Amino acid sequence: MKHIISACFFLFSLCMSAQSVTITVDQNVTLKEFFKQIENQTDFKFAFTDQIDTSKKYFNQKSTFKQTDIEKLISELNKTASIQFSIAGNNIFAKQKTQQTQKPAKKKSKLTGHVLDDERQPVIGANIYVKELETGVVTDVNGKYVIEVPNGSYTVQVSYVGFKNEEKKVSVSDDTKVNFNIDSDSQQLGEVIVMNNKAVDIKTTQMSVNKLSMQEIKKIPVAMGEPDPLKSILTLPGVTNAGEASSGFNVRGGAADQNLILLDGAPVYADSHMFGFFSIFNADIVSGLDLYKGGIPSKFGGRVSSVLDVTQQTGDFEEYKVNGGIGIISSRLLVQGPLQKEKGSFILSGRASYAHLFMKLADNNNSAMFYDLNAKLNYRFNAKNSLSFSGYFGNDIFDINDRFASTYGSTMGILNWKHKFSDRLNSNLSIFYSDYRFNLEIPIESFKWDSNIQSYGLKYNWNLQQSEKFKINYGIDGLYYNFNPGVVKPTSSDSQFNYMQLDKKYALEASAFVDFENQITEKLNFRYGLRYSMFYRLGDETISTYENGQAVVYNPLYNIYEEGTPNGSITYGKGKTISKFNNFEPRAALSYAFNDETSIKASYNRMAQYIHILSNTQSPLPMSIWTPSGPFTKPQLLDQYAMGYFRNFRDGDYSLETELFYKNVQNRIDYIDGADVLANNNIEQVILNGKARSYGMELLFRKNTGVFTGWVSYTLSRAEQKTPGRTPEEPGIANGDWYLSGYDKLHNLSIVGSYELNPKWSFNGNFTLQSGQPVTYANGYYEMGGIHIPNYSLRNENRLPLFHHLDLAATYTPKPDKKKGWQSYWVFSLYNVYNRKNAASMSFTTNEDTGANETRRLSIFGIVPGVSYNFKF
């Protein structure tokens, strides 16, 4: 691996070149015209004080520069122009020259620190400007800055779009640390103006990504009135789920198990509480989320549909803070503060439901509740090293009349060490543990059922910024799995069940990746990379063998598939390789900017998925079992192509994103009719291998500024599967033709709006309309032994009725100007305002009283009011 990386460094360093320009300036060129020449040829932007008049002419003589390095150009102009330029990151600062001369200091020292916002969160990309030296830097991803200055006294200014400027007098005689806290400001910046701040990043190659901040998430009305990060992504183009109160989400026609869900970089295997009513992500501690639908960078792997990257907040390094909320169903509390000022911090968040208490008061013996706990610890050892720990623990508890009891939940912990080798090279080393467990007990039958999946992993990533035009990201990953599909335990001596442990499964997944970002020209950017993944299915396990290697057999007499009968078995000892797979996963993305407002982008990515959920329902259930690829289940392989058009209007007030995509997935499993996947020790007997595809168009139009903001998203798409027969005589599924997958939604429309009436009142709305979920209806009945038995049509040949609802919310802040002490606000919400009875399922039964065949429609929600009181201090 070392030699490969070295070779890549050498090969791609040949492509690197400094940014150069060809321009002419004279006494008739205004500063604004000069800015335009530079920005049309480079990715530099200008920042200048309010004393600068860009319509004036500051150049004293005619000068022509041909293919001149930008740093050399600035140096030459500073000798003759009546204005002073300085470079800081991607910014060029412009300031009036003064007559004061600076005496060089004999010694230089480092001025370092962090920039935090009014929520004590790191500010990325803030400008640090030393007035006397007319130079500056930009903060990194941790809000940190480092600048070397001669010993002396200086005025240091911090500026960032949307925040008030902060200024401090600093005396430097040795390495000095100075932190800044900047407050948000809705007014136009006064002293420093940063040009070309856009709503959509036109030039970056990254596409098919949607980002939501917690401010946006908290404005979207949801059932039960609690902000929900996971429900919020359903308002984005290309994202749906199986319906109300269903867990999981589907991206561009993919299944729920095809999504990689990361919490602070560690994988989680379940995403919801209470069968989908709430997500496991507590909105109070989440800082934001990124959903990658396509053009996925090489650092991500293991799933073939999407990556949901959720990050938790960093605790406050200087002050103790508390915030929380009290709702109808659940309440939450968050505490954060310093472990050691400026060095260490903590943040703890807890949430619990209490609907079961009301049920007990009403003499209802049923019980349903959940609780979870999030934690994050950070410690900065020095300017080059920091350590953090993130953890999550959550549980759901169900108890129905002492006849049925179930608990399930997740545990996750990740330890992360960040090290900065130099200003250009830094690394990130992580080790993590994650597990999901499901426990079921039925006292009347005297047995328990336990299952779980555990994983242990390591990631080591490096980021090298070779130049402003060339960046490299590379690393290695390792993940060990322990699958326990289930164990049955009798709870009494008279139980009809015997102890049974389904075969445990073990696997190792490893990968290495490299990703390059290269600015070819000012308008053309290219990102390309490669991921190499390996997967080993390991013993201790006994694998059944079948005649002709077919675990599923076709019965031509009844025209059905049946479970095959094992004719032997092979036992693999502990650690022995049962199956192994490896795949090259190339990635590429390209962007071309016509100007600062418009661009087109295209991407391709191949991904491999080695683990799968065994569930023949559209929405994963808590008892759904994960299983690794092996002798009868091949890895899923994705090829996805996408291209899009991106545009900003009115300097970013409005933005438009449109994309076309096509996905092809090999080795997508499906189930034979009547398949039983629960407690099946030979799951290969009920699955067939096929393929899947999806394609469509996505549109996202956003209004980003003003008292009224929001977005409209629309998706027109098709998702299909094909499972042909293995021989000409076999029909496969749906006669071997393409059939709709359970995740197909031809039309998907979301309209989200937020209106700020005044500082005290704001109103939010969300309208959703989707095509009904594909289902299989009965198309007739036959009678056997006096019992009416429905006869079903081909797989997913029908649809549920159109799905739509309107949700509204109002937020009331009694004292909006209060910034210290107890602060609070109320949220009043109505889910499904017009009481739409959306169908969750259709069942075909016989009426016990009349004997007539009938169809019954199940709806989960009508109109649902909600209210919550939220506070912080």
UniProtKB/TrEMBL annotation:
The principal localisation class reads membrane
Kindly list the biological process annotations in GO that this record carries.
siderophore transmembrane transport
Q: Give one GO molecular function term.
A: siderophore uptake transmembrane transporter activity
Keyword Lyase appears in the UniProt entry: no
Please name the Pfam families in this protein's record. CarbopepD_reg_2, Plug
Record key words, sorted:
Cell outer membrane, Membrane, Receptor, Signal, Transmembrane, Transmembrane beta strand, Transport
Extract the signal peptide range: 1-18
* Subcellular location, record wording: Cell outer membrane
Name all TonB-dependent receptor plug domain ranges.
202-302
This protein's membrane topology, according to the annotation, is: Multi-pass membrane protein
**Which is a Gene Ontology cellular component entry for this protein?**
cell outer membrane
Please name the InterPro entries in this protein's record.
Beta-barrel_TonB_sf, CarboxyPept-like_regulatory, Plug_dom, Plug_dom_sf, TonB-dep_rcpt-like
Tell me its family: Belongs to the TonB-dependent receptor family.
Q: Mind telling me what this protein is named?
A: TonB-dependent receptor
